[in-house]
Amino acid sequence: MERNNATSRRLQAVANHTSVPSPPKEKNTLLLVLPDGGKVDAALAKNPEDPNEIILNGSVVVLYTISESQDFALDVTSVGTRYQGATAHVPKYKLLTLAAPKIPTGRTKDVSIADFWVAIYALFTLYHTQEHIPIAFTSFPNAEEIKEYLITTGLGRLYPTSELSVKKSLLTKEITFLSRATFWQGAGTTGYHRRSWLLNPKPTFPSVQSCTRNEKVIAIHPLRPSKPHPGEVLYRRWCSAVNQMLEITYFDLEGVHDGTKALGGGLSRHMVAFHKWHNDERVNTAWGERGSLETHREYVEQLIADPHVLPCMLSWDGELMGYVEIVYVKEDHVAPHYPSDVVPGDWERGIHVLVGESKFLGGGRSEIWLRSLLHYIFLADPRTDRVVGEPNEENKAIIKVALNAGFHVQTVFDFPYKRSALVLNPREKFFKLCRLW
Fold it and tell me: Which domain of life, per UniProt (predicted)?
C-alpha cells in the first residue's frame, strides 16, 4: 500500500512539474441548473485560440475551442446538386472542437454519456440561436462511443453523402452536427441517464380504441394513460432568462405530497392556492369560477376523475404561481369547433391556463412558462403533433403571448359563454424555431 501511495505521489509531482499553466479564463458563469440540481458553469477563455470549459458541480466535463477559420452549413437539400457546398441562404456555424478533461497524471479520461449530454445542454444554452452546432473531437479517448450515441439517438447527424459524390472531405468524415430540435425533443435521455426534464418518463402508452359519451361530446378516441400520483413533479426546467426553475406538478387535492394528509387533514397547498386564485377578480374575469371551497373541491375532483384532463400546478423555484388543465382534444368540447380542413389528432392536446400570482405577470415570464408547458406536452408523448388553445378572442394580451410562443390563429368560433380564437402550435414548428432558453 505504501509503495502504491509513493508511486502516486511521484506521478502527481511529475504531472505538476511538467503541466502547462492553464490559459487565463473569464470568471465562471452559471449557465443552468439541471433538473436533478446539478449546477453547470462555463469558463470562457479570454483568447480565441484557448479552450473553453464546461463545468458540472465544480469539475470540468468537456473542453472546446472555437474555430476562427472553419464554419459549416448542414445544407441537406443541396446534396447531389450543383448547389452542394455553395448555398448562401443556409446558416453556417463555426466548428467547435471538443476535448476530454485530463486526470492528474496528464492523461485524458473518458467522458460518460450522461456528462456529455450535460455538455450538449450547455452548448445549446450558449448557442441557443443556432439550429445546429458542428463539432469534431480531439484528445477524446471514447470519441467513437460518443459518436455512436449521437447518431443512434438522433442528437447528432453526419453530413449526408450522395451516390454522385465520391470525394470524402473533412466535412463528411469527421464532423457531427448536433441538432437543437432533437436535443429539445429529449433525444439521448430516456434509457441513457436521469438528467432530463421529465422526472419520471413513462413508456409510450399503447393505442387501443375507447369512447367518451357525456353531455358535451360523443367521441371515439384512444384509451388514455392512467393519471400521475398526487403531487408528482412531471417536469422541471431551468429558465435562463429569469434564472429560476419552473416546475409542473400534478394536482395534490388531499395533501398527499405536501404532508397535509399525514398531519390529519386540512387543506392541501394546491387547494389553498386554487381557491384563492379563483376568488381573485382578475382570474374570475377570465375563468368565471368564483365560488366556495366546497365548489372548488368538487370542480377539481371531477377533473381528477376525468381521463381526458390533467389538472396541474405551475411554480417558480417551488413557489406556486399558476394552474393549467391539459386535455386530450379528441374527446374535448373544443373538437367540434375545428374547421373542416383541420382534424384533431388522436394524441393532440389542449391547454387552459391561468397565472394566479400577480407578481409573476409581465417581464416576459408568460412566454417562458408557456413554451415550457408546450415542451412538457410534446415530451410526454412523441405522438402529440399539435397543441391547441382557445383563449377569449377579446383577450389580445394572451393571444400575443401565444403568438410569441409559436401558436398561430387558425380561426374564431363561439362557445355558449365566449368567442374564442382557435390557436394551434404544431410540433415541427415548435422545435424548429425552438426558443427554450
Answer: Eukaryota
CB atoms within 10 A of CB 252: 20
Across 119-144, b (16+ Cβ under 10 Å) vs e yields: bbbbbbbbbeeebbbbbbbeebebbe
54 and 114 inside one domain: yes
Pick from 46, 43, 53, 48: which is nearest to 69 by CA?
Answer: 48
Over residues 27-49, the pLDDT tens digits come to 789 999 999 999 999 999 999 88
Q: Which residues contact 233 (CB under 8 A, 6 or more apart)?
A: 199, 200, 247, 248, 249
Task: Assess whether 294 and 365 both reside in one domain.
Answer: yes
Of the candidates 44, 45, 51, the one whose C-alpha atom is nearest the C-alpha of residue 29 is 44
Grid cell digits, residue 417: 359563454
* The C-alpha cell that represents 49 in the structure block: 485560440
Strand-strand pairing, 59-72 and 93-99: antiparallel
Q: Please tell me whether residues 114 and 149 are part of one structural domain.
A: yes
Task: Specify the number of domains making up the chain.
Answer: 2
Return the residue matching grid coordinates 450522395.
162
Give per-residue pLDDT as tens, 210-247. Answer: 999 998 899 999 999 999 999 999 999 999 999 999 99
CA distance 42 to 289: 47
Q: What angle do CA 147, 183, 348 make, to 5 degrees?
A: 135
Length of the chain: 437
Looking at the structure, do residues 341 and 229 belong to the same domain, yes or no?
yes
Q: Residue 246 has what pLDDT? A: 98
Q: Which residue in 286, 322, 289 sits closest to 399, CA to CA?
A: 286
User: What are the grid coordinates assigned to 34, written together?
Assistant: 439541471
Residue 387: domain span: 209-433
Q: Is the dihedral of CA 118, 122, 127, 133 positive or negative?
A: negative
Cell numbers found for residue 173 = 468524415
pLDDT in tens, 1-33: 444 454 444 434 434 433 445 566 677 899 999
253 and 167 in a common domain: no
If asked whether residues 225 and 258 sit together in one domain, one would say yes
